[in-house]
Amino acid sequence: MLTYDSLLAAITPTSGETREVFDPATGALIGTAPLEDVAALEVALDQATAAQPAWAALSDDERKAYLHRAADAIDASAEALAELLSREQGKPLNGPNARFEVGGSSVWTRSAADTPLPVEVLVDDESGYAEMHYRPLGVVGAISPWNWPMMISIWQIAPSLRMGNTVVIKPAETTTLSVLALVTVMNQVLPEGVLNIVSGPGSTVGDALTRSPKVGKIMFTGSTPVGKRIIEASANNVTRLTLELGGNDAGIVLPDVDPAAIAEGLFWGAFINTGQTCAALKRLYVHDSVYDAVVEHLAEFAKNVPMGVGLDEQNVLGPLQNRAQYELVDRLVESAKASGARVVLGGNPDHEAVGNFYPTTLIADIDAHNDLVLEEQFGPALPIIRYSDIDDVIRLANELEVGLGASVWSSDRAKALEIVPRLQAGTVWINSHGGLHPMIPFGGAKQSGYGREFGVEGLKAVAEPQVVSG
């Protein structure tokens, strides 16, 4: 078990170029992170390449056991990991935040270990016999984001290791310490060279990782524009890809809802991780007959949810992780205000205050084509659009180029299910939004990416299918 101080000491670089890391809530210096280059990436790729055959040669049960030991190591140092995550990313310790994310990291690791993937018998009759096997791809290059840096890293690492691959991971530049700490803890029990990390700019290290012929698979979670660049960079090697890209998820509230009953679910669908979640509810369409009541009950719930420094135990909303994201949210809210939209809650940040805190913001009576609706805000500001015709609202929900998730809210599940097939999204939730499960495949439609993570489909995605016939 590592304490916060011993964990920070273990990941503090003793040589090479570094950058200072500051707490987005307080501005305090946390420590220093390594700033590595393409040469360091090549070393890591060579280590992963050298370690992969022996790792793949282990039995499936042996790799499962290693993953369980890695999950145990995460659990043993969970409080230190959560404190570092809270300081660097900004998310509070409590609520669906830092402790939740660290716990989820061990849960998803165990799930990746325990998900059955038996040999599939395809044909077994007088015409012949054929089986489907899943073989390792080699080295997986993982590029993780800054919003859920530990858990999304695990979504990339754990299934890759289970299937016999080794991993080189490049964390986001603003949450390097969190992923470095996670990898350090896991490497207490994993064989040398199986899990490697390189910290550096996406423009150099990330680009080189996606272009490397040593990599059999790239897994990336992030924006659609960066995903497109990865597609181009990896094309020459025909590298396999799993891309979970940008989203601007729509929620549709039908006229039969109980506004008071759905307020809490709507809030957390939109504001989990202070809105910094790819599959968060980012534009809410409410039928005219219940519009005012839904807005009123949502605002009543939202105004009582505490925001502040993450290490204060009572807070469950935190700052935006970086100033660029704060400025984006501020720009979009100001655009909505300038258009005449009604500010129900928030929308009045103190630009001189310490920390990247943007208040919980609800914007009502907004045009369906305002910038706050059309652009992914990725922060604590929710536009609420009034509608009266179901065909019109489905058209609005589908008109963007992204399609990660969507939700339908109704007291009648059958009515909700009638709408679901008409929505262009990788996942459609009913009476909730954004919930994920380690056994339920997750991924996007349209320009929200391709490939699926989690469960059996997630294991297959980091393996090469091989048919054995005869």
From TrEMBL:
Belongs to the aldehyde dehydrogenase family. Keywords: Oxidoreductase. The active site is at E244. It comes from the Bacteria. It comes from Leucobacter rhizosphaerae. PROSITE patterns: ALDEHYDE_DEHYDR_CYS, ALDEHYDE_DEHYDR_GLU. The keyword Oxidoreductase applies. Residues 14-467 form the Aldehyde dehydrogenase domain. InterPro entries: Ald_DH/histidinol_DH (IPR016161), Ald_DH_C (IPR016163), Ald_DH_CS_CYS (IPR016160), Ald_DH_CS_GLU (IPR029510), Ald_DH_N (IPR016162), Aldehyde_DH_dom (IPR015590), LUC3-like (IPR044086). This is Aldehyde dehydrogenase family protein.
